[in-house]
Amino acid sequence: MALPLAVLxxxxxxxxxxxxxxxxxxxxxxxxxxxxAVQAAGAAAxxxxxxxxxxxxxxxxxxxxxxSVALPRVTAPGRTEYVPIVTRLNGELFRIRVGATxxxxxxxxxASREGNLIVRLGDSGAAAPVQPIAGRPWLMAP
Length: 142
Prior knowledge:
Blueprint: H1 2-53, H2 55-58, E1 68-70, E2 74-76, E3 80-88, E4 93-103, E5 109-121, E6 130-132
Antiparallel strand pairs: 1-3, 2-3, 3-4, 4-5, 5-6
């Protein structure tokens, strides 16, 4: 009678250990995926900043309304990369859209994020050539 109870106890303990380990594995994967998403979002934000910072060097003020230009792909540290696209919406508004990805060593996409910024041409005496629209400059998409 004691042997079957001991075996049953061991089986129950083994099942509990398996459940706990499976839960820990899921938690680890969720955390890793969250990290990859944050890295991709950071690359998108860096891309938007890079476009605004290099506005005059890219000659983006010469775009005609409705015209878009894709700037060169940039590879950032940590296996992230982004591609900025600038579209002139009208005479004074531009949309900066940056698609960013975080990949693994094999090039498989682990996470992707998009950063958007609507900017207005600054006054001729302004310190920066473009200014974000006040109140809601960021439109982040998953």
